Amino acid sequence: MNLPFFLDVEVFIRSLILVIFIFVLTQIVQRVKNILRRHWVERETDTARKGRIATSISVGVTTLDGFIIIGGFISLLNILGIDMTPILASLGIVGLALSLGAQALIKDFLAGLAILTEHQFAIGDEIKVGSVRGEVEEISMRATRIREYNSLLHIFPNSEVRIVANASHQWMRAIVDINLPYSVDLHQAYEVLKSAAARCAEDEQMKPLLLDPPEVIGWNGLSDWAVQVRLAARTLPGKQYGVQAILRRNALDALDQAGIPVALPTILANELPNPRS
């Protein structure tokens, strides 16, 4: 007499053991992922390499989890005595039907493969996709997750990630513009800013972030109320904002100590005569 699988004690126990084994195996894989991140990612000093390692670990673990679950499901069907032959035979028809609806999924997978093999971006990179700019939080073969700086999470199917601006590729440029009034001695101001930039290059907080010493580019623009001077420096990826803050602070402090004011935009408001008067 063939009993239902939930009444057959042996089949039930074997099925339960398999389910527990699959669960434990997936948890072990997650633990291994965390260990690899601690030993490889957190100890890596190269920012670009760190992002690629984190991305490879994330995608590898996701793929391995998928194989474990699929393999466990097939093993469970065998334990329950379900004949796989008719199922495999029907897969041809089902596969044809699914292929028509899975074209987007296949496109996402191929696009994800291109992202990984071409190193277009990695976890931790600052990128811009369309109007969204933020940090890459996760990359899978299906989608890319980008976290904006206001904490909003965007999930892009990989096939939709067509044009990417990567602000973390090799180096970035920190740019600081200072507006000076026409009334000041511009040559003196230039020398003061040049000295401030040189001091920034020796700043212990700033030095590890720089690839080149900061420099005064020169007069960057003229307006009806100010002359604009630009300072710039090449930095490590993602470090340009911190460098800009330090460079701007030192430049303003140096100008203040030299008694050189910065220009502020002014608005002239003229009172129109009352037509009734």
From TrEMBL:
What domain of life does the native source organism fall in?
Bacteria
Q: Pfam families, per this entry?
A: MS_channel_2nd, MS_channel_3rd
Q: Which residues form the Mechanosensitive ion channel MscS domain?
A: 105-168
What keywords were assigned to this record?
Cell membrane, Membrane, Transmembrane, Transmembrane helix
Q: Write out the GO cellular component annotations.
A: plasma membrane
Q: Where are the transmembrane segments?
A: 12-32, 53-81, 87-106
The protein's matches in PANTHER family, at most eight in alphabetical order, are given as: MODERATE CONDUCTANCE MECHANOSENSITIVE CHANNEL YBIO (PTHR30460)
Q: What is this protein called?
A: Small-conductance mechanosensitive channel
Provide the species name: Longilinea arvoryzae
